[in-house]
Sequence to fold (814 residues):
Amino acid sequence: MKNAAGSEERLTFRYSQRMLEMPFPSAVGHAGDAISFAEGDAYPPDMADMTASAVEALTTRRSETLQYAPRAGLPDLRRWVTDYLAKENVRVTPENVLIVNGAKHGLDLACKLFLNPGDAVIVTAPTYMTALPILRSYGPRFIQVRQDSEGLLVDEVEAELRACERNGGPFPKIIYNVFEFHNPTGVTTSEPRRARLLDLAERYNVMIVEDDPYRRIRFEGEPVPPVQALDRANRVIGLGTFAKIIAPGLRVGWVTAAPEIVRKMAVVKSDGGTCPLTQRMIVEYCRAGQLEPHIKTLVKTYEMHRDVMLEMLAKYLPEATTMRPSGGYYLWIQMPEDIDTDHLLPLAQRHGVRYLPGSRFYAAGGPRNYLRLAYSFSSVEEIQEGMRRLAAAVSKSRKAEGPGGGH
Amino acid sequence: MKNAAGSEERLTFRYSQRMLEMPFPSAVGHAGDAISFAEGDAYPPDMADMTASAVEALTTRRSETLQYAPRAGLPDLRRWVTDYLAKENVRVTPENVLIVNGAKHGLDLACKLFLNPGDAVIVTAPTYMTALPILRSYGPRFIQVRQDSEGLLVDEVEAELRACERNGGPFPKIIYNVFEFHNPTGVTTSEPRRARLLDLAERYNVMIVEDDPYRRIRFEGEPVPPVQALDRANRVIGLGTFAKIIAPGLRVGWVTAAPEIVRKMAVVKSDGGTCPLTQRMIVEYCRAGQLEPHIKTLVKTYEMHRDVMLEMLAKYLPEATTMRPSGGYYLWIQMPEDIDTDHLLPLAQRHGVRYLPGSRFYAAGGPRNYLRLAYSFSSVEEIQEGMRRLAAAVSKSRKAEGPGGGH
Fold:
């Protein structure tokens, strides 16, 4: 049968506008025995032992765990989440909780509920790189605000909102942020700033999406109350996850929001319910009292990893600067201005070390001399060797470009 | 702080257009000891024993199964899918396979890749009710085509496409269908119709989304080759799932499509990879030779369920008509014209039986005297008792409305 347009061209795929506008950055390679500081993966020797929970789930609760699950999640897990959050002063009932396939799934649902193409979204510069394609797939306009050592600059948010007000709107729809141990910078937003941001969100009817995966991975100091703990007008959509406190592979997280939002999300979730097996394994694991000792182990490991990485940074790359994060998984490294971390990456990979270039963390452009190092996945020995390799790559790159060489 | 608009109204949620246009049908209640013919749930006594696979996955492969998974899925499972599909004459390589959180997730990704608001989608009338909110969340225009005993009426599709051609386009983007044991009607589309539809899809550059969950739940007769087995121009996006052949709760399915499509889907999937634990459990279960005997058990059970339900229908509701499906999970029942199955539902629930009214299966309106009964979940005794209850509800409804009463 003849092609209707009479040409081969008709047979290229007719993608949606969102896909045509979507940047597809090249993957950071996995090849060889490269040491990886790229992804926020869990440290393999600290993987939780979930075997007993799985056996329990698959034998005494086979009908529950192998059947379609309730769209909103297992009632036992929704209740568990409310108890867990109560300790953080977030007062929610099970009707406020939706179980999802990881926090990223929750972000996708928040976008689906609120974003029309062209709606403005406020993010920090830099922001969590994986949030960007999720947001982008809804065609938003990005407003970038900066951070300092106390976190997101609420003054900049307020200036943007006031400008909208002067222009008669429309106001941004979503403020997305990791307030506790920000990804990638490690910065924690102070309580006064959280409260002020929430006031603005209420006044201008903007939703705050509070992505909070790292809260419990704290090495020192006191946690700041979640933004949602201060929320009286249901302007916060909280995103939580078991990825960083039990295991990423279980793909179970939660959304906390107004019951109306949770009900709508459950309908457009359209996935037959989040896996009841992994939900039940988590309930059993936590009920058996294994969560808190496990988190203690993780915090000890990651604190040591952080310290070793900071030490190696000082030793091998003294011209680099970073903040010393009090928790989380990452160092956000500022390199000298002549280092373009996108250009450096292939060379670093040839030297056997992987990282994520800073450019991936900006919604709309940013400096080129930053990079993110995850200290979570690699062992102490790998961190030592990986940092040596990174320094060697930097040194090689500078020699290749010659004195005063740019690009 | 005063609300910017000075009124309470500003604090209603500013949902996206897609959410404002989305119908939210009231849930079919779960209360009491009602016998459920509503959802396509698995028969609990036939739940697979996955314990050994889980123990294997969680002990010898702990680092793999508790870590983030590769976005496209575990290589072992992608390979397994290609081998499985080769037996159905679908020739794909692992690069054509994306592992997803169930077939519905695959449909969502297909919509994300292809649909702009207003793009036309072709569906059957009736079609799978859960596909509708997924499609609707992308704001499409629906074109409904009818079916007969040989399946989807390709003549109607062709007439629609020719009309587009005369008008200079745009052509529909997606044809969505369950070709084998259609949900809800049970109809299987014949091979000549599949081939003609594929020719049309190629000629007019429309993607066919072939949702194929029930293929192996066949009681009699020979399977028809999947549409994808006939595809030479990558116009088919195949959706497969382990839900109906192992267990719904595992939430693992697959998409088969051109490598370019699979790569793009993997990026916008943005979920940290589908759960590697349930993926690995499936690989181990299948490698242990447990899949084929399990499918045999399921087919025997569901065939018996179908037979009992047909027998009870003839006994208790002789005025109802249905097709005798050769496979799948459902009976699609035509009731006399004076029965509105939406009106009947609350009464049926008070009589202790649940079903889905036919109206839920139409993208844009349809007759009111149909209903779908799933024979998968309930036992033989429950099917017998449930059908008696349904007949009692119908009889009560007619008495209440009096002779000649309509609505």
Observations:
- Chain B touches chain A through 85 residues (CB under 8 Å).
- The first helix of chain B runs from residue 17 to 20.
- The CA atoms of residues 173 and 206 of chain B lie 5 Å apart.
